[in-house]
Each structure stands twice: as structure tokens, then as C-alpha cells.
């Protein structure tokens, strides 16, 4: 009989720190064993001072150690600890992480906004209702204290993710400074949210038909006076009534506690989104970031079968970014295909992984998006666009690596070495950037005229040479002259001499 696997996830949020403990049996069935939340408003420190105070860090470490005891009681094999918006935006982040490690023994993974959205999305995908709700279009709404996160799915495909600086904690801190009454504050919050929603609608989801609003988290699941059940699917009338009931309770029947400060903006956000997208139903999913972390961990360790091609979701989002800037994508798609051919030809001996293949693919698809702004500064602007874009599923370091691959793909070897030595990457990361940069540079050179003249591109390693054989009906003299610039760079990265061989179909000769 296969052994049981028990593991845990801890997420440090702006408002609370959450522990979830999971068990997977030999049949691949995953079950939640325990869930505990410890409230601690570290986000307020970030809003007011930009850092988390020493006193708050001590309280946070005590909370984490309290949760750690539970993981030991349940016999968790591994504990995954993630930091969200407050940790990420803290000016004293490095010192916070060191204090947590010294006090609790945990290394904290600090995630980007797109990564947080992706974890919630993975949690939704792992639910049995995903196929049903995604078929007719759904908007996943995570109205958290730190940030507002929006993810749209349709037909089983991820359409977009967008993160907005409209966290409920930020909203309340700003509104409370006005000195208005509770009812006036509620009206002001609604007006502010309605304005920001109009911006999102105009840019991102004006033409989408979305049947379901998916409510992430436990906003409507824990309040005794306006509570629904986890997993409830409410029609429009029932959901709007629930929102109105919650707002009335928060503004009239209870003094403004810290809980109410956070909950009221969240409820208004949910109601405004529901009405703005014209949804027909709301799903009280109860799904949080921890659920996605557990799903990813269990799949990576082969405890459960792969439930979805999440890599394809990342690629889909990248293609949408590309099309936002590029009118005709033939060159980008050709460069991506050629770079993939080069990567596969070198994969066995180059110490590269499939994850690096994804980074190269993204760099190839986005390597010239800056042409939309400036032909002269295309490479630099393309790198900047990638660095600042929210690409779902990528870490901040991965996004920066892709940016540097794009920035450097036209450099010669010596200029690249000089440039990358000054950048904030470790040795292994610099090697990966170099290896992928030269592949993008070669692939781009093979379509330097943007006319895709080489109908096939094949590779072969032979006699200490990496041979690229191209098949064409026309003359490749331009490409052959340009590719010589990459000889030294390529040999330094891979140890082979670079050879371009042209096979002319008209004469069938090399």
C-alpha cells in the first residue's frame, strides 16, 4: 500500500497568516486536514511607513511558530511558506525574512502579484466545478486586503489576469482619513471602486460575456449574520441580497472594528464586479492561495495526476501581450520556432531544463514588442515592457531574466560579459541568461530580413561543431554574414563551433 503524504502551506498576508495542512493518499486523493488563520495587520505598517515595525515582526514570528507546532502535530513532511503583498512591498524585506528564518527556521518564498493570482487560479482549476464554470466564462475575484486580483477564464482557457492597487486595507485607510460617517464612507468606497472598474472594463473585459463571478477566499463564509456555505452557487437575486445584507450589517449594526474596516470594501467590490460584468451567478468557492500551492506541490511530486496544462496558460497570456504591441506576428512566431529547434538540439549536453525552454519561448515572442513605441530603441523598450508586464505564473526573477535575454540578444560576447557582470544575478542565473541570449540572437538573425526565407531549420552536433542546416529557395547571404557575429558568444556558452549550412532546394546541394 502506498504511504500517505502530509504537507502544509503557510501564507503571510497583509491581514492574516494562514496555515493549511493537506493529506494525499496512495490513490491520489487530496484532502484538507486542518485550516487555521492568525490575524495580524502587518499591511497597515506598509501603508503608513513602507516598512514592517520590529514589534510587528516579533508578533509575526510568534504567530508562525504557533502554526509550526500544528504542522509537527500532524507530521507534515514539508511546510511551504509564502509571503504576499505586505512582505513583498516592505522596504525592510531582507531583514524580515532573516528574522523569520532565525526565529522559526522557515525560508519564506516572496511571490509576485501574478504568482499570487496564478496560485488562486490553480486552486480553482483543481476544483470539480472548474470545467462547468469556465465553459461559459468566469471572473475569479480575489478582493484581498493587499491587492485586488482579477482572473478571467473562458472555454477552459485563461484569458487574462490583472492586479490592481485597490486592496481593501488600502481603501479603508484612505477613506477613514476623510472623517465621513460610516454611510458616507460606504458611498465613497462605491464611487471609487466604480471608477476603477470602468478603467478595467474599457481596457480588459469590455467585450467578454462572463456568466459566473467566482469569489475567492472566505469573505462570505465566516460571518454569522450574513453567511453562505462554501461551494454555494447563488443566482443574481440571492447574491445581491447577500451583499446588501452584509453592507447594512457592517455600516449600521456594528461598530467599525478592524474586521469591518476590511470587510466593507471587499463586499462592495464583489457587488460592483458582479453587476459590471453582468454575471448570472456567484460561486462561493472559498478557494485561497494555499489551495493552489498545495495543488502545485502535489503535482510536482507526482502525488496527484496533472490536472491541467498550466504552461499553456502562461504561453496564452504571453501571446496576448505580444498581440497588444505587434500587428503581424509572423516574425515573432518564426523566431520562437527556430529558437525552440536550437534549444532542443542542445538540450542533452547544455544543462538546461524545460523551465528554461519556457523562458526562451517568452523572450522570442516578446523580443521586439518595443517597436510599437520606437524602432530605434526597440530592444531596450522591449526589455522594459517585459520587466514591467504582469506575466502570470512567472517569478519576479524569471521576468527579469527574460528582460535581460531580450536586452542582450544583439550584443557580442564581450559586451554581454561586461553588461551582465554588473547585474544582480547569481552565477548560475548569469550562465542561463547567456545560454538563452545567444539562442535568441541566432534565431533572430536567421530571420533578419523578416521574410522567413528558411523553410526548414535542422541542427546536428558533429566533430565539435553545432551545425545548423537551413533549407531555402533563395540566397541566405545576408543571414550568413550576420551570424558570424555570434560565433564567439556561442562557443563560449556551449563549447561548440557554430556552423551555418545552406541547402538550396533548386539545386539540391550544400
What does this protein structure show overall?
- The protein is of the alpha/beta class.
- It folds into three domains: 5-111 and 292-300, ATPase, nucleotide binding domain (Nucleotidyltransferase, domain 5, 2-Layer Sandwich); 128-286, Exopolyphosphatase. Domain 2 (Nucleotidyltransferase, domain 5, 2-Layer Sandwich), CATH 3.30.420; 310-504, Hypothetical protein af1432 (Orthogonal Bundle), CATH 1.10.3210.10.
- It is 51% helix and 18% strand.
- It has 20 helices and 14 strands.
- It has helices at 42-49, 54-73, 85-89, 93-104, 113-125, 130-135, 168-176, 182-205, 236-252, 258-277, 289-300, 310-325, 330-346, 354-366, 378-388, 396-408, 413-420, 427-445, 477-483, 487-494; strands at 5-12, 16-24, 30-39, 78-83, 109-110, 138-143, 148-154, 157-164, 212-215, 233-235, 281-284, 454-462, 465-472, 497-504.
- The strands form three sheets. Strands 8-7-6-9-11-10 form a six-stranded mixed sheet, sandwiched between helices.
- β1 and β2 form a beta hairpin.
- α14 packs across α18.
- The protein is globular and about 80 Å long.
- The termini are far apart.
- The model is unreliable at 506-510 (pLDDT under 50).
Amino acid at each position: 500500500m502506498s504511504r500517505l503524504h502530509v504537507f502544509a502551506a503557510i501564507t503571510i498576508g497583509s491581514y492574516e497568516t494562514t496555515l493549511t495542512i493537506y493529506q494525499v493518499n496512495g490513490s491520489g486523493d487530496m484532502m484538507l486536514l486542518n485550516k487555521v488563520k492568525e490575524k495580524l495587520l502587518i499591511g497597515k505598517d506598509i501603508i503608513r511607513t513602507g516598512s514592517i515595525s520590529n514589534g510587528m515582526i516579533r508578533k509575526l514570528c510568534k504567530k508562525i511558530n504557533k502554526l509550526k507546532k500544528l504542522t509537527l502535530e500532524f507530521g507534515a513532511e514539508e511546510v511551504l511558506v509564502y509571503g504576499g503583498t505586505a512582505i513583498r512591498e516592505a522596504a525592510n524585506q531582507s531583514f524580515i525574512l532573516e528574522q523569520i528564518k532565525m526565529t522559526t527556521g522557515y525560508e519564506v518564498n516572496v511571490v509576485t502579484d501574478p504568482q499570487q493570482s496564478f496560485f488562486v487560479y490553480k486552486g480553482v482549476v483543481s476544483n470539480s466545478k472548474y470545467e462547468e464554470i469556465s465553459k461559459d466564462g468566469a471572473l475569479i475575484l480575489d478582493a484581498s486586503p493587499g491587492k485586488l486580483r482579477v482572473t478571467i477564464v473562458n472555454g477552459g482557457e485563461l484569458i487574462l489576469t490583472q492586479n490592481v492597487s485597490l486592496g481593501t486595507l488600502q481603501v479603508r485607510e484612505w477613506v477613514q482619513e476623510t472623517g465621513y460617517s460610516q454611510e458616507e464612507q460606504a458611498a465613497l468606497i462605491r464611487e471609487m471602486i466604480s471608477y476603477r472598474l470602468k478603467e478595467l472594463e474599457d481596457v480588459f473585459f469590455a467585450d467578454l460575456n462572463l456568466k459566473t463571478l467566482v469569489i475567492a477566499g472566505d469573505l462570505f463564509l465566516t460571518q454569522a449574520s450574513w453567511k453562505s456555505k462554501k461551494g454555494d452557487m447563488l443566482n443574481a437575486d440571492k447574491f445581491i441580497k447577500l451583499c446588501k445584507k452584509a453592507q447594512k450589517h457592517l455600516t449600521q449594526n456594528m461598530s467599525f472594528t478592524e474586521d469591518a474596516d476590511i470587510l466593507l470594501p471587499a463586499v462592495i467590490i464583489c457587488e460592483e464586479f458582479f453587476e459590471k460584468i453582468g454575471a448570472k451567478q456567484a460561486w462561493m468557492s472559498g478557494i485561497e492561495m494555499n489551495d493552489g500551492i498545495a495543488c502545485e506541490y502535489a503535482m510536482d511530486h507526482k502525488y496527484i495526476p496533472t490536472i491541467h496544462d498550466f504552461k499553456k496558460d502562461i504561453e496564452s497570456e504571453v501571446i496576448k501581450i505580444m498581440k497588444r504591441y505587434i500587428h503581424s506576428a509572423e516574425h515573432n512566431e518564426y523566431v520562437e520556432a527556430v529558437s525552440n529547434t536550437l534549444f532542443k538540439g542542445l538540450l542533452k549536453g547544455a544543462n538546461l531544463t524545460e523551465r528554461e525552454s519556457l523562458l526562451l519561448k517568452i523572450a522570442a515572442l516578446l523580443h521586439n514588442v518595443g517597436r510599437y513605441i520606437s524602432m530605434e530603441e526597440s530592444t531596450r523598450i522591449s526589455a522594459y515592457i517585459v520587466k514591467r508586464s504582469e506575466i502570470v505564473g512567472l517569478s519576479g526573477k524569471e521576468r527579469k531574466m527574460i528582460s535581460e535575454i531580450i536586452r542582450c540578444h544583439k550584443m557580442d560576447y564581450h559586451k554581454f560579459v561586461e553588461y551582465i557582470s554588473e547585474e544582480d544575478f547569481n552565477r548560475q542565473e548569469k550562465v542561463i541568461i547567456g545560454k538563452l541570449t545567444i539562442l535568441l540572437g541566432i534565431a533572430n538573425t536567421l530571420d533578419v530580413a523578416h521574410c522567413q526565407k528558411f523553410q526548414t531549420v535542422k541542427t546536428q552536433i558533429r566533430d565539435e561543431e553545432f551545425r545548423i542546416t537551413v533549407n531555402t529557395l533563395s540566397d541566405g547571404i545576408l543571414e550568413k554574414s550576420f551570424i558570424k557575429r555570434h560565433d564567439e558568444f556561442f562557443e563560449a556558452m556551449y563549447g561548440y563551433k557554430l556552423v551555418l549550412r545552406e541547402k538550396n532546394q533548386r539545386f539540391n546541394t550544400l
